[in-house]
Structures are given as C-alpha cells and as structure tokens.
Specification:
Elements: H1 12-23, E1 28-32, H2 39-44, E2 49-53, E3 77-80, E4 97-103, H3 117-123, E5 128-137, E6 140-148
Parallel strand pairs: 1-2, 1-3, 3-4
Antiparallel strand pairs: 4-6, 5-6
Length: 149
C-alpha cells in the first residue's frame, strides 16, 4: 500500500495500519490526537468501530474531549498520535493495546517531548512490546511503539 501526502510520506500510516490489520485482535479503536490526520481512519472505518478524539474544536467529525481529564476511553486499541502533548495514557488505561506516536520536534505546547521509543515504553508501562520504529522527518523524529501494558 502506497499513500500520498501528509504523515504518509514518511511511512507512518502504513506502519500503523499494517500492525493493526496484521497483529491486533481489537474490534474497537480510539484514534487520539488525530487532528487533521484522516488517512488511518479512512483505511479502518469499514472494518472496525473507530472513534477519533481531539480537543481541537475545528473538526466536527471528532469527539472534542480531553482523553486525560474529560472522558474514559473504552476502546480495545488506543492509537495516540500526540504523546508529546499529554500525560502518558498507559498510566491511566491498564491492560490495553497501544500504538504510541511521539515526536522530538519540540512545538509549543509539547509538555512531554519524546526522544526515544524507550521513553514511550517506560512512560506508558508497556510490558509486552510487539514492535517499535523511528521515522525521520525534516525537523525531528517520530517514535512509534506497539504493545500492551
């Protein structure tokens, strides 16, 4: 599968999608901090119960709630696109399957800058590590971890 544009240019969407369809037994998926990233949602929506969450009110097809303070996620698999912007969800949600994405681009509002896959593993108490990878971008790196706590 070859996609065009956005995060897809670096191969991240393909990596996430292949882990979900190839390894996960999840039936429900939470896409957290998704903002304008619709590629993964569009790939999954016909085969899974997928809900997008973000606190950005700009998008009307996203549940506009803070997943740390406002609601409790019930989905089997949590895909967090914005680990650098929030408290580690693995400390809140136990016995869950996670795909964690964090970057080292140091944007304003990044209260939890991510500098390695090991940092994501430790912060989220990931015990079963299924896969990790790093994608280089023009001003930093994306760190991805797939596992369960």
């Amino acid at each position: 599968m070859k996609l065009k544009g956005g995060l897809r240019n670096c191969g991240m969407t393909e990596w996430i999608y292949s882990r979900i369809i190839g390894l996960s037994e999840a039936k429900t998926i939470a896409l957290v901090g998704v903002s304008n990233k619709r590629e993964l949602y569009n790939l999954l929506k016909d085969d899974y119960d997928v809900t997008m969450y973000d606190y950005n009110m700009e998008y009307n097809d996203i549940v506009c709630k803070d997943v740390v303070f406002d609601i409790e996620l019930k989905e089997d698999l949590i895909v967090n696109f914005a680990c650098e912007k929030m408290y580690p969800l693995g400390r809140i949600y136990k016995s869950r399957e996670f795909i964690l994405i964090g970057d080292s681009e140091f944007h304003s509002g990044d209260c939890n800058p991510i500098e390695s896959t090991q940092q994501l593993i430790e912060q989220n108490n990931i015990k079963d590590i299924y896969d990790t990878t790093t994608f280089t971008r023009w001003c930093g790196k994306y760190y991805l971890v797939y596992g369960c706590n």
